[in-house]
């Protein structure tokens, strides 16, 4: 009898990735065509992809491999510890932010009826060439998630302001000119929207306002409305040639939001506060709501 061949020393993940890259082949090393990627190239590609800095096309160029981009994509898909995911663009929370969120959630969890008389408002920017924050990367499950923050820029976009309550939606306002502190109305606690003039106007009109914790999109259900609208405005990767086309699509998306969906979001408010308390002020999974869901996270 011949001597048994020693077992390979590479990791299980690498072995699976190499096998997937070769395709269905015999265990005999001499059988079948030669693999497009050598074992060394597979290790290089997987190691670089795990940093989250490269797409498949970048990896092909970086290592000058003969494999196609599609082959590299299939290779990475078969690596257990890699997943292609969306990068988080949420601003980080400091200890002070978490403390304020906890105090706010504890205060309002005791008065669930307040949401029946609350108007949730916010602003949203839509770009001609697609939504912001849709940056994807290969995430190594053994490492912390990556994030990025994109600064706002002028031109090629439409800024809107809207609100909703249990009675329905407001009219959607298009902010056509550059806004300054004299005119911007925004109830969430963002520094660019803090305006003495606005506060004075609301006091004169006897409009009650709610103190809102900073950096808390997961607590505001209108963020889910914007997400639902964006999925319709940019369906199938659509882009727009001019502002008029984009505005028409935005209004159509706003009109498509049904009252039933808004009521579902309002019903989620108590769960949102409980989630904040459970997470000790950290961001919760409620920011992941999708339009049209009857059940699940809101």
Automatic annotation (TrEMBL):
GO MF term set: nucleic acid binding
Superkingdom assignment: Eukaryota
Region of interest (Disordered), residue spans: 1-36
Species: Phytophthora cactorum
Protein name: Tc1-like transposase DDE domain-containing protein
InterPro entries: RNaseH_sf (IPR036397), Tc1-like_DDE_dom (IPR038717), Transposase_5 (IPR052338)
Gene3D superfamilies in the record: Ribonuclease H-like superfamily/Ribonuclease H (3.30.420.10)
Biased composition, class Basic and acidic residues, residue ranges: 25-36
Domain Tc1-like transposase DDE: 189-246
């Amino acid at each position: 009898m011949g001597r048994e061949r020693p077992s390979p020393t590479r990791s299980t993940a690498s072995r699976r990735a190499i096998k997937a890259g070769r395709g269905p082949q015999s265990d005999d090393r001499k059988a079948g065509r030669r693999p497009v990627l050598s074992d060394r190239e597979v290790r290089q590609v997987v190691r670089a992809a795990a940093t989250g800095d490269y797409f498949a096309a970048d990896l092909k160029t970086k290592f000058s491999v003969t494999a196609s981009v599609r082959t590299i994509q299939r290779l990475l898909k078969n690596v257990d510890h890699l997943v292609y995911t969306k990068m988080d663009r949420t601003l980080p929370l400091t200890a002070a932010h978490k403390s304020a969120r906890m105090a706010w959630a504890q205060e309002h969890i005791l008065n669930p009826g307040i949401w029946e008389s609350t108007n949730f408002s916010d602003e949203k920017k839509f770009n001609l060439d697609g939504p912001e924050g849709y940056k994807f990367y290969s995430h190594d499950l053994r490492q912390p998630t990556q994030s990025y923050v994109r600064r706002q820029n002028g031109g090629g976009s439409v800024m809107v302001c809207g609100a909703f309550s249990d009675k329905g939606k407001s009219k959607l306002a298009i902010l056509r000119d550059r806004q300054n502190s004299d005119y911007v109305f925004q109830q969430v606690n963002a520094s660019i929207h803090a305006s003495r003039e606005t506060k004075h106007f609301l006091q004169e009109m006897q409009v009650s306002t709610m103190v809102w914790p900073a950096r808390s999109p997961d607590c505001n259900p209108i963020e889910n409305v914007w997400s639902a609208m964006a999925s319709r405005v940019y369906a199938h990767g659509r882009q727009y040639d001019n502002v008029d086309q984009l505005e028409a699509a935005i209004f159509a998306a706003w009109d498509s939001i049904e009252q039933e969906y808004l009521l579902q979001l309002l019903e989620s408010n108590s769960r949102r506060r409980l989630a904040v308390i459970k997470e000790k002020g950290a961001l919760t999974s409620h920011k992941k709501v999708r339009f049209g869901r009857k059940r699940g996270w809101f």
